[in-house]
Amino acid sequence: MVPLPSDRSPDPVSDVVRWGAFSCALVPFVLILSGASWAGAVGAAAGLGAVTCVCRALLRQSERTAARVRVRDFGRHRDRTGRPGPAAHGGGRHSGGRTPVN
User: Which domain of life is it from (predicted)?
Assistant: First the structure.
């Protein structure tokens, strides 16, 4: 069982990737000890390594996307001065030249 990343970890993705790399080394070792062929163990290591690399890339992409969404949502409801408020939405009544003509 893989322990959950600690709350004190500055980079939980690295913790997950480290556990993945550890399993990439451990699984072939166990396969060889249990009587599997060297080719099978090397194949398993290569497959696990590829899966670990793809998972790392997907986790990093997910982090970047989440960071962009946080930045976009944080800055969305602010006016030109940087203050939050109803003027930031651009709503309200406007007078001037655009009233309907009957």
Answer: Bacteria
Rounded to whole angstroms, the Cα distance separating 97 from 102 reads 14
- 75-101 confidence digits (pLDDT tens): 655 555 655 555 545 555 655 666 666
Structure tokens at 36: 């599997």
Task: Give the pLDDT score at 61.
Answer: 92
Tokens at residue 91, please?
A: 């709503």
Residue by residue, DSSP assigns 47-89 as HHHHHHHHHHHHHHHHHHHHHHHHHHHHHHTB-TTS-BSGGGG
Of these ranges, 8-22, 31-45, 71-85, the one predicted with the greatest mean pLDDT is 31-45
Structure tokens, 85? 């408020």
